[in-house]
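pinging the channel bc i need a second pair of eyes. not urgent but kinda urgent?? the chain im working w is below, pasted from the shared doc
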Amino acid sequence: MISGAIFRDGIISAANSIANFKEAVNVLNVFPVPDGDTGTNMSMTMAAAKTAVSTLADDISAGEAADIAASAMLRGARGNSGVILSLIFRGMADGLRGCDAANSAILAAALDLGAVRAYKAVQNPMEGTILTVIKEAAAAAREHSREDTDPAETFEYAYRAATEALQKTPDMLHILKKARVVDAGGQGLCYIFLGMLSVITGGTVIELSEPDSAEPAPVAVFAGDVPGEAEIKYAYCTEFIVKRDASSAKNVDDLRKFLASAGDCVVAVDDGDIIKIHVHTNAPGEVITQGQAYGELLTVKIENMRQQHRHAAWGVGDAAEKKTEEPVRVAPEKKFGFVSVAAGEGFDNLFAELGADHMVSGGQTMNPSTEDILTAVYATPAETVFVLPNNKNIVLAAIQAARLADDRQIVIVESTTVPQGVAAMLAFDEDASQQTNIDAMNEAIRRVTTVSVTYAARDSAVGGFNIKKGQCMGLEDGKMAAVEDDPNDAAYRAVRRAAKRSTEMITVYYGDSVTEEKAQQLVERISEKFDDAEVLAVFGGQPVYHYLISIE
């Protein structure tokens, strides 16, 4: 039988296994864009589960251990691969619900439910992906469970079927076959199952072979290195930024006095437009409410220092541990609000000017978790919160956040690029109905063609282009359109291909690697070619992408 302790150790082993092979999964991504996110996202998602189960007692039931792991994974899920992975384990937890331990039949049923959950999450399920791998693993477990009562052997059959299905993925997806790789998500799942198999069949937890580059490695903390938990007078490290209300004459000194009475380690910096707050307190909700009297909340972060102390004592240092408390919920004060995902100082300012209540930092290479999005939603004082993912790899995490939110309505506006998100917000009318706004924002998204320019992370051959590592790639709505040595040349060629005679406006958002002068040179070239369109440069400040260009 697979007990709760075995399942717990299996999760820890699986998290270590995928962390060890994270980079091997990352390089399987077919497109050579520098996102490298599949292995990283799956590793960080498993790290959330590892943190949640690490302190469970040996007498925990299999059903309880699975439920705790799945809940942590759902909140910590990053990227589409992380969300699908979390749903596989949520299905498994549903199959193990109420079980002290799992026999072969229960295990097979749990894997089956995991596959069903994963398929249902994807609007257009595609074979040759992680979905095929979990489906074949579940089918093998189901077939074996009819003949044998040993759950360890059943899981071994499931693992073998998963690896066999993985090898077949290039035959199912031409893009994989052409790139001569297997599916990255499916490979990640096999590494995760390998970690679990090591525990289920041999009782051995796979150890971390090297520090994980995405999160800190576990750190041993000796007695005396940190204060005792009882010595922590104020439990919550609370930080937030308030955008000052221009009409308010409130004195920040009054806020400082309140903060001093509510906690210690007080910092309140007023630069005229915003107020940055840091305080250790036992009443973070009261502190944040007091801050709201000075204007709108832009960001909120709360960490339980006592919980961090416990984790330090356990020798666990994963970044996923930091968000173990329920996010602060701000009472609705208006009808509509916005949460937008993007990276870059320019985009932060732009979305704030357009009316976004909160920005979630993220995009390529740093997909935010479900909980990151949920925290921003709860901090938005609105009855209905529109969420703009602005990246195709963040949409599923946003959808899961919407399903978890229980005190306000969440509407996911499925923007898959930042320019689409900007267009959607420009189309919003606060006096219109919710459905009218949804229709208007979706129509605005449809009118936008996005050209993105980044560098190749490795040598590759995609879309008829032979690409060398370091070259600049111009992509039209994610499809390869140009490859050049200079980012301006790649951008110009991609825009020339994407823009039409009817194009009215072209907005060049330049990133942190591009000077304003170089961006203006690109604008001049585009303007000469499309003299009927309005062309302008706007500082986005985004990392990774030299340019994000909106064509409307």
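so Residues 460 and 466 are 6 Å apart (CA to CA). and The first strand starts at residue 2 and ends at 3. — does that match what u expected or am i reading it wrong
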